[in-house]
Structures are given as structure tokens and as C-alpha cells.
Amino acid sequence: MVVVGAGLAGLSAAMRLEREPVVLVERDEAVGGKARSRNRDGYTFDVTGHWLHLRDERLRELVFGLLGGENLVWLERRSTVRLYGRTINYPFQANIHGLPWPARLRCLADFALARLRKRRESPSEMRFEDFVVGRFGRGMARHFFLPYYSKKFRGISLDDLRTEWLKDYFPMPTTAQVLGGALGVRQDRVGYNARFLYPAEGGIGVLPAAMLAACRNRDGFSLRLGTSLQEVDLAGKRLRLSGSPEWFDWRVIVSTIALPELLDRIPGLPPHIAEARGALRSSAMRYANIALRAPSPMVEHWVYTPEPGIPFYRMGVYTNAAAAMAPPGGASLWVEIADQAGPVDDSDILDALVRIGAVRSAADLLFMEHHKVDHAYVVFDKARERAVETILPWLAEAGIHSCGRYGRWTYGSMGDAILDGFSVADLVAESS
Ligand SMILES: Cc1cc2nc3c(=O)[nH]c(=O)nc-3n(C[C@H](O)[C@H](O)[C@H](O)COP(=O)(O)OP(=O)(O)OC[C@H]3O[C@@H](n4cnc5c(N)ncnc54)[C@H](O)[C@@H]3O)c2cc1C
Is 334 helix (H, G, I), strand (E, B) or coil? Predict the structure, then answer.
């Protein structure tokens, strides 16, 4: 069995395929994918904050079993939105008392109007704009949701921004919570991430590292790091890896790499699959890891920054979740930047961090390093669902199970990726 990609989906599939010999192939020099952590000079960084929300009992068992309860910390979310020079508790829609009065009244009136209209369409069939206007009113849409999600965060047009990705991830306060929040009652418990887990040390990368150790504990497992899937010959059931002209036979492939990249490695796609592949769109993102030689004055775990004057759309402070993410007296932070903004200068980032109170003085900076994530967010436009429903069964028929967040070309958490790896492994084991 060949498993391609050693992110959480590939690792969980490899763990679960206990009775099969498994070769796990990973392009990077370390496992973890988006859940990998990096350490530099005692400062630890994830691929931006990776918090664990383990809503499924199987996930809790797995994660606590692998890491041990003493190595995990439960955290009560401290998150805000910075808007009009104010600090508004997250989620915005349940805490509009933080807005200036005229904006708060406009949002409240429009919310009441939206509730009176009680739009009946199912959110999954809607454009994002229709959904937020219908559910929360035009005021909240105009002040936060549309500028943040369409322009600043995703960088895609409102026509292309649909709602299928929202699922459980969009905080949906009740009418009473929105009204309470408008009148000044803080709503801290709204949303899937009001409470979350994070490793006490080592960043989120300790989770994939523990999954790898579990795979290594059994017979028939081998890992090839720094090795990329190059080409898949469907008819001949052979594949080629980087660094070798040799062809390897395969019966079943579990692939967790981005779906378009997998298809690009299969020569001679039938026209309907090539056409569906052409419809798969994603947006990349950039992020910067920031090491401070002094503590950060900010108390939040993460902060949303929708205003155009700030070059990043979200930032956070790792050391507010786990002090061990930096040497004593220091702090480690990240900022997230939409790719369409292009590379941003360190000085502009630092200046904005000082303005929002995340960094006391530019002199506190020890280093800043920049990274890019291709395909960070799948674009849920009108064409996506049909394309994915065309491609995945065709691949499965040929013996390739594409899974994980990017293999399924979807939106999901670390928990979703792990569960997906498990279910694909079960499917493969049943059919062998
Ligand atoms: C910015 C951001 C923030 C996030 N924050 C959170 C959070 O707070 N909480 C949460 O639960 N989830 C979060 N997520 C989601 C989470 O990271 C993913 O759901 C999960 O890590 C996906 O795992 P995966 O194995 O499906 O994919 P990946 O992690 O992408 O793994 C795919 C692997 O395939 C490898 N690969 C690629 N091409 C090849 C090739 N040709 N040959 C061999 N190997 C290859 C890659 O190197 C990678 O290791 C976040 C995601 C992003 C982008």
C-alpha cells in the first residue's frame, strides 16, 4: 500500500492500515504537513495557530492516548476583532456592543429586519453575501463579514464566495445572544472554538510526530521523506517517485496531496476529468513567524484585523497559548496575509503590530521569517462540487483514494483530516 503525503490524513491512514505493509511517501523533510511545527533558536511556530477542537470521542481518545493529558492544555478562547480603533470580542456577530453607537444601531436595526424576514433558503445553497445578509443583516455584513471574508481574507469575488465551507465552523449565535451582545453582555461561549486544546510544549507538530512513532511501532511500515510522487501510470499500475527513474507497482494508493496536483501527475486524463480538474480553484496565503526578545503586551490568543490599513488579516501570539513556545522572557507570534496582497515588508508588519498592541516596540524584534502556503483555501465556487463529484469516484474506481482536506478539495479541521484518513483506511481494508 502506498500512502502519499505525511500530513495528518496520511499519517492517520498509515496508522490505521495495521495489517497492510505501508510505504508513506512525503515530499518534505519532516512529517506533519500543515500541522507541522518548526523551531528556530528556541522559538516554535506552527503553520499559523493550530488549535485542537476535538468534538469527536474517537479523536479525543487518539490525541490523549498519543500525547497524554499532562502534555495538553485546555484554553478558554481569548480572541478579538480590531475595528475602527476598537477592540470587539470575537465572535463579532455576538458582540456588536464593541462598535461605535451609530454602527451598532445600524447593525441592530438590520439584524431585526433580517430576523423578521426569516429567510428560508438553506445556507448550503447560498452565496456567502446572501447568507450573512439574510442571517445577520446588511449592517454586520457591511461592517465586517464582506470586507473581511471576501476582500481581506480570501481575496475572491463575492460571486465566487459561497457557503458550503461554513459547516460547523461559522459561529451561529442565537437571536438572544446577538441581542444580548448588542446591549453589552459579552458572549464568550459562542462558536466551535470557545474552548480548545494545545500542546504544553513543542507546538502542534508533537501530534504528527507521535502519530509517526505509532506507525513505526509496527511491522511493515516504511517512510520516505524528501520524496515526491512524480507520475502515476494508471493502466500499468506503476508509479514513479522523485530521485529515481525506477517504477514501483501499486494496487491501491491513498493520496492526501492536493487534488489538482495529483491529477497533474496522471498523464492522459480523459477529457471529462481534465475539464473537471480545470474547475478546481484555491487561494494561497502567506504568513510570517515573528520572534520577540520581550513579552508581547497582547493577551489574546488570536486577533482578526479586517481594516485595509493593516497588512495582515489575522495574527496571534503562540506564547499566550503555551509559554514554552519561546525562551523565557520572549514571545513567538504569527501574522496571516492574503496572497493577493503580495509580499509585505517586515517594517510594515512590525508597524501594524505595534499599532494594535501586539508588540511594544520595533526594537523587540529578534527575527521575522516569511512562508507561503499554496492551495491554503479551496474556493467553494459554483463549479467545485460537480468537479469533485466527477473526479473522486473516477480515481477510486482506478484504485486511488484521495482524502484529507486537500485530497478531498474541501475545508476542514485537523480532526476532520484524521477521521478521513481513518475512514479511507477502513474502506481499503474492507475491500482487500
Ligand atoms: C492557515 C491554516 C490554519 C489552520 N488552523 C487550524 C486550526 O487552528 N485547527 C484545526 O483543527 N485545523 C486548522 N487548519 C486545518 C488543518 O491544517 C488541516 O485540516 C490538516 O492539517 C490537513 O491535513 P492533510 O493531511 O489533509 O493535508 P496536508 O497537511 O496538506 O498534508 C499533505 C501532505 O502531502 C505532502 N505532499 C504534497 N505533495 C506531495 C507529493 N507530490 N509527494 C509526496 N508528498 C506530497 C505535503 O508535504 C503534506 O505533508 C488550518 C489550516 C490552515 C491552512
Answer: strand
Distances from the Cα of 402 to the Cα of 242, 248, 348, 413, angstroms: 20, 19, 40, 17
Kindly list the structural domains of the chain, giving each domain's residue range(s) and its CATH number in brackets, ordered by start. 2-34+55-67+202-280+379-431 (3.50.50.60), 93-183 (no CATH), 282-378 (3.90.660.10)
pTM, two decimals, is: 0.95
> How confident is the model over 373-406, as pLDDT tens digits?
999 999 988 899 999 999 999 999 999 999 999 9
Q: What confidence category does residue 123 fall into, taking pLDDT thresholds of 50, 70 and 90? A: low
The grid coordinates of residue 155 equal: 481575496
Alpha-carbon torsion (121, 122, 128, 133), positive or negative: positive
**Grid-cell match 507570534, residue found:** 333
Tell whether ligand 1 has an atom less than 6 A from the beta carbon of residue 406: yes
DSSP 10-60: HHHHHHH-TTS-EEEE-SSSSSBGGG-EEEETTEEEESS---B---SHHHH
28 lines ligand 1 (CB under 6 A): yes
Contacts of 352 (CB under 8 A, 6+ apart): 305, 309, 310, 311, 312
Cell of 276: 473537471
Atom of ligand 1 nearest to the CA of 28: 47
d(CA 135, CA 120): 10
Counting every residue written for the chain, the total comes to 432
Q: Widest CA span of the chain, in angstroms?
A: 69
Ligand 1 pocket, residue 376 CB under 6 Å: yes
> C-alpha cell of 363?
526594537
